[in-house]
Amino acid sequence: MLTPRSLFPIVFLLVFSAQAYGQQSPRFSEDVKIIKAYDKLFEPPADPILFVGSSSIRKWTRLEQVFGAYNVINRGVGGTVTNEITGFAKDIIFPYNPRQIVIYVGENDVVNEQASADTIFNRFKVLYATIRQQMPVVPIVYISLKPSPSREKFVEKTKAVNKLIKTYLAAEKNTAFVDVFSKMLDKNGKMRPELFVSDMLHMKPEGYMIWEKAVRPYLLK
User: Fold this and answer.
1) pLDDT digits over 123-164, tens only?
2) Which range is the signal sequence, renumbered to this chain (predicted)?
3) Looking at the domain assignment, is residue 24 inside a domain?
4) What's the CATH number where 109 sits?
5) Order of strands, edge to edge, in the sheet holding 175-178?
6) Does residue 72 sit within a domain?
7) d(CA 186, CA 217)
8) pTM of the model
């Protein structure tokens, strides 16, 4: 049964499509306005688990159904890089007072030839510090960057970013690193195009099923 919460990704996509050519600077400000307008129409649940990040979160259209028992909300903004999620934290993270935050961001940073693994890692640390400044003890789950076939040329940088963030979070309290990278490879360690739609970047339901299985054990009841 569809609910206002489960309708969010559909409503977002419809409104976004209509406004895609009218965005103002900074990037994605209109996307955030859509989210805030949606929140006025449908009051967000109290104490949710907040999923936030780039398009792999936004396009997870069944997220609120598959994790319905956990009281989750999806506030992904497609196309964002890490610094943009940091900049919009006051709009798409803090207002929800989440009891847990699940993050997927950084893959769009990887394609920037000027951004090294260390650069992307440092951007993540700024995002992490921004959240911790406002929410010092809220559990944070970071989903590793995935192995997208369209970005195979950046695979070594992707693995380096994952390693840096995993090592960093291992020393931090109330955090978890969820490895989806290795789980999305075949038995020979190769990428699996069949998990992706035609752009070889965004996932089919089969890809999200892997994510669901990987993330579920880390969610708070």
Assistant:
1) 999 999 999 999 999 999 999 999 999 999 999 999 999 999
2) 1-20
3) no
4) 3.40.50.1110
5) 72-76, 49-53, 100-104, 140-143, 175-178
6) yes
7) 22
8) 0.88
